[in-house]
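# nightly structure sweep
# worker-07 picked up a monomer target from the shared queue
# config: single-sequence mode, recycle default, output format = structure tokens
# input follows
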Amino acid sequence: MTPILSWIVAGVAAYLIGAIPTGVILGRVFSQQDVRRAGSTHTGGRNVMRVMGVRAGILAVVTDAGKGITAVAISQWLGAGNVGLVLAATLAVAGHCWPVYTRFHGGMGLATGCGILFWLAPDVLAVLFIVWAVLHFGLLHHAARAVGVTVLTLPVIIVLLGKPPVLLFTGLAVGLVVFIRYIPDFQRSYT
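# output follows
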């Protein structure tokens, strides 16, 4: 397989995997509810938890993280190289945020992005979690704003931990997608 073809295959596969609407599927299977019509209307784990309870929410988060892991692992298995890795990671998160299967109404991309970091650099994810916890519980007390600021620190954390440039580019691209997706929620508050 040529490099360009491996990039295309990795990117398309990643988007289609990321776009699997876990929250919508869980809502239909476990409660006959459409999470897109309740709570925040997002399809990710936090809204699934809000609408259907902790167990369903945890299952959604773990499954969404698994989508990110699977997308990146396929890219690596294809031998798509650094370009394929960045594409796969970015498109898996974009697929979760704007899934073709649900007319582009998806989640926020956080769990999918965390799955990618768990696979590629769990130490970066651990530091990122600490930053988020300090921001969320100590300073901002608002989930969306804390995530928005946290993803902006991702490139800095990657550089400080001495990670390779491909991880920096992946962090920049994935972080940008998540940040853009969170912007509309910066002023919202959910019960």
